[in-house]
Specification:
heterodimer, A: 591 residues, alpha/beta, Rossmann fold, 7-stranded mixed sheet, 5-stranded mixed sheet, B: 205 residues, Pyruvate-ferredoxin Oxidoreductase, domain 3, 6-stranded mixed sheet, 6 strands
């Protein structure tokens, strides 16, 4: 096998889990964690699934652990919030087969609604945590995590960040050690936590003490002695930034960041004049160092951390230079020349465009949800009033209805995508029926998980390995929970969509309008022939109404809009709204 | 590879233009040549027509995957405005190659977006070696506008200091046979252009 493999952190985690003999893996797509499960699905001897949501993924993996298997669940930072209830109880019961939880955090909120430092969840749940700083460590640490999980009878958190998960670096492969799952053992005193939890509670604390002892001699908690003026305590990607900016400083690089190795940290700090704690996001390491009041050889506690380096957004070598070396740095030229931002946009021909065109026209109040369709909040649609987190929109809409039913009840909708609806939209819809609401839900069914790159979900009839399975029938599903009014429309058909939404809004009962058309970016749609359109100059009245469809193939910077022949997919939405019939298919189609 | 040789490359453009592919090819060429390599990028919103940027660093040993601002040797941008957005990352007198393609960003606040004029003039005044290339047109003349990214990659191949043998091996290994011939032509086109231009000597820096 080639010794030089060029892997992203996520690919390396998948490889490491496979080398460690993982039997079962599950997750829910979410940037930056998605590729872990996608890559594990490439190994035929691992049972891999996209689960309905992160809590289900967690519970499935934990069940497999109890059954004796090595299992791994991979989610993004907010995904672990969804699974938090399960996470918090498993340290009481421990594991049977090794159980590794991967949390991929997103400092800088590149693809997330919030920023949170999930290192606190390891401390909160009282489970050990490893933080790799490159792809090789991603692979190595996941293997260590499995061994640690079995040795200490505890789930282990492997915490990455976007810059670890999505950076490629060189990785050496090892031969896999794949063994069958251990035999199942019925053990209610271990696993029926509500009854036996009090007895287990002490174990949690006692185990932490043993883990701290382990951390003090753990080979990946490593002192790198250089000059003794500055000693840096760091972990994860921050180690790489620290080395970039302070190549001559001594470093305590922590591969295991919970529980922290007190003896080792005190020993290191006793060997340097000043301590820099370099970490991304919150002062997780720093707080513990300050609580322990660690000192230099002269008995002084001289710690620099979040008093200099910000606790917000992604860290970088530039920020370290600016804050710790007071360099002036190279900043963007935007003070000298206008550099307009480039927000993400819906693709040409996106079915959501049609639905949002109608929602904007009807001037509804709309609560949104997480997915590509969140972009409907931006111009020209400005169609969403709120968006928070997975599955929140339907409950939010019902809450608004409770307070403003008389004034807003008939123009209030919740907008949710198909994947998000299955993830966590069903329970709040039941709540609306149960509690006699009238809110209308627009289910934007583009038949895929769009934003994360087209992963399979339970409505698609395909598993992660594209094997045929049952596809949820949304109409039957919402009928069964008590929605009597369900309409399916094609969002390219603007009249039909408008009529259906108006009809639903007029009802004195909850209704669901399913806006159904496949995402234009999925392969089968891309393979279809596309017949681009053009604007006929002589017919155009320069009213710019066509721009309201928000299509990036339409350039409105000239009085007569221009359609990019390369980018137009011929959805004809702009032609449908043009009042002068000035947009027509190009007659000599090249495609 | 020589012991002290290192380069920081930055690739920019708009989601869908093929930025990530050229960054991957450059990283693999450096790997082929025996360097330690790190490549980082942002996914997610990239698919929806937003800004895309990818850092590629190679040296005997690379720590941070992010190149600090002011230390990029070569910035290759598939779209002009995106080149400007990251231009402050380039080292003094460093090289910036811009595709002439202009993509007007979507509105963020309802006001019309004004595309900056004379980007290349501004960058020249900043002391950067600035080269404008109509790669989209060149690629179209070769058979498919989508190969614009590979034309542009060809223009920096020599300036990276990586051996041509590594580039060729990586192109052949990583591009689908169906599009390989077109892309090899596109790459050659880029190499030719570079030989005519003034930035030939930059790899000696």
């Amino acid at each position: 096998m080639s010794t030089k493999n060029f892997l992203s952190g996520n690919e390396a985690i998948a490889r490491g889990a496979w080398e460690a003999g993982v039997h079962v893996a599950a997750g829910y797509p979410g940037t930056p964690s998605t590729e872990i499960i996608e890559n594990l699905a490439l190994y035929d001897d691992v049972d891999v699934e996209w689960s309905t949501n992160e809590k289900v993924a967690f519970d499935v993996c934990y069940g497999a652990s109890i059954a004796g298997a090595r299992t791994l669940v991979a989610v993004k930072h907010v995904g672990l919030n969804v699974a938090l209830d399960s996470l918090m109880v498993t340290p009481f019961s421990g594991v049977h087969g090794g159980f590794v939880i991967v949390s991929a955090d997103d400092p800088g909120m590149h693809s997330s609604q919030n920023e949170q430092d999930n290192r606190f969840l390891a401390k909160f749940a009282k489970i050990p945590m490893l933080e790799p700083s490159n792809s090789q460590e991603c692979k190595d640490f996941v293997k260590i995590a499995f061994d640690m999980s079995e040795r200490f009878d505890v789930p282990v958190l492997l915490r990455t960040t976007t810059r670890i998960s999505h950076t490629k670096s060189v990785v050496a492969f090892d031969e896999p050690k794949r063994e069958p799952p251990k035999p199942y053992k019925k053990d209610p005193e271990k696993y029926v936590v509500p009854i036996y939890g009090k007895r287990r509670r002490m174990n949690v604390e006692e185990r932490l003490k043993r883990l701290e002892e382990f951390a003090n001699t753990f080979v990946h908690n490593r002192m790198e002695w250089r000059e003794r003026g500055i000693g840096i305590v760091t972990s994860g990607i921050s180690y790489q930034y620290a080395m970039e900016v302070f190549p001559d400083a001594s470093v305590l690089k922590l591969g295991m960041t919970f529980p922290l190795p007190r003896k080792l940290i005190e020993y290191f700090c006793d060997g340097v004049d000043r301590i820099y704690v370099i970490e991304e996001l919150e002062p997780f390491l720093e707080e513990q160092l300050r609580i322990w009041n660690v000192k230099n050889p002269y008995g002084i506690s001289d710690i620099t951390g979040k008093n200099a380096v910000p606790n917000m957004f992604e860290l970088s070598p530039d920020i370290l230079r600016r804050t710790l070396l007071h360099g002036d740095g190279h900043t963007s030229f935007e003070k000298e020349i206008s550099i307009p931002p480039r927000p993400p946009i819906l693709c040409p021909g996106c079915p959501h465009s049609g639905a949002y065109y109608v929602l904007r026209k009807l001037k509804v109040i709309a609560t949104g949800d997480i997915g590509c369709y969140t972009l409907g909040a931006l111009p020209p649609f400005n169609a969403l009033d709120t968006t928070f987190c997975m599955g929140a929109g339907i409950g939010n809409a019902f809450g608004i209805e409770k307070v403003k039913r008389s004034v807003l009840g008939k123009r209030l909708v919740a907008v949710i995508g198909d994947a998000t609806f299955l993830h966590s939209g069903i329970a709040p819809l039941i709540d609306i029926v149960f509690n006699k609401g009238i809110t209308t839900v627009i289910l934007m069914d583009n038949s895929t998980t769009g934003m994360t790159g087209h992963q399979q979900h339970p409505g698609m009839g395909k598993t992660i390995r594209d094997i045929d399975t049952y596809a949820i029938n949304y109409e039957e599903l919402v009928h069964a929970i008590g929605i009597r009014h369900v309409k399916v429309v094609d969002p390219y058909n603007l009249e039909e969509t408008e009529a259906a939404i108006k009809e639903a809004l007029a009802l004195e009962e909850p209704a669901v309008v399913i806006s159904r058309r496949a995402c234009v970016m999925i392969e089968s749609e891309r393979a279809k022939p596309h017949h681009p359109y053009e604007v006929i100059d002589e017919l155009c009245e320069e009213c710019d109404l066509c721009l309201k469809i928000g299509c990036p193939a339409l350039d409105g910077s000239t009085p007569i809009p221009h359609i990019s022949r390369e980018r137009c997919i011929g959805c004809d939405l702009c032609a449908r709204i043009c009042r002068f019939e000035a947009i027509k298919p190009i007659s000599n189609t090249l495609n | 590879m020589t012991n002290n040789q290192k380069k920081n490359l930055l690739f920019a453009g708009v989601g869908g233009q093929g930025v990530l592919l050229v960054a991957e090819l450059a990283a693999r060429a450096a790997l082929h040549a025996g360097f330690d390599v790190k490549k980082t990028e942002l996914h997610g919103a990239a698919q929806r027509g937003g800004s895309v940027v990818s850092h590629v660093r190679f040296a005997p040993k690379v720590y941070s995957p992010l190149t600090p601002a002011g230390e990029v040797d070569i910035l290759l941008s598939l779209e002009k405005l995106e080149g400007l957005r990251w231009a402050h990352f380039i080292r003094p007198a460093g090289l910036i190659i811009l595709n002439e393609e202009e993509r007007i960003p979507a509105q963020l606040d309802g006001n019309p977006v004004e595309y900056p004029k004379q980007i290349n003039v501004f960058l020249v005044e900043k002391g950067l070696q600035t080269v404008l290339i109509n790669a989209t047109e060149l690629a179209t003349s070769l058979g498919n506008y989508r190969a614009a990214n590979i034309v542009l990659l060809g223009t920096i191949a020599e300036a990276t200091g990586l051996p041509m043998e590594s580039w060729m091996a990586v192109l052949k290994e990583n591009l689908h046979p169906k599009i390989l011939e077109l892309n090899l032509k596109a790459f050659e086109k880029g190499l030719e252009l570079a030989q005519k231009e003034v930035w030939r000597g930059i790899s000696s820096h």
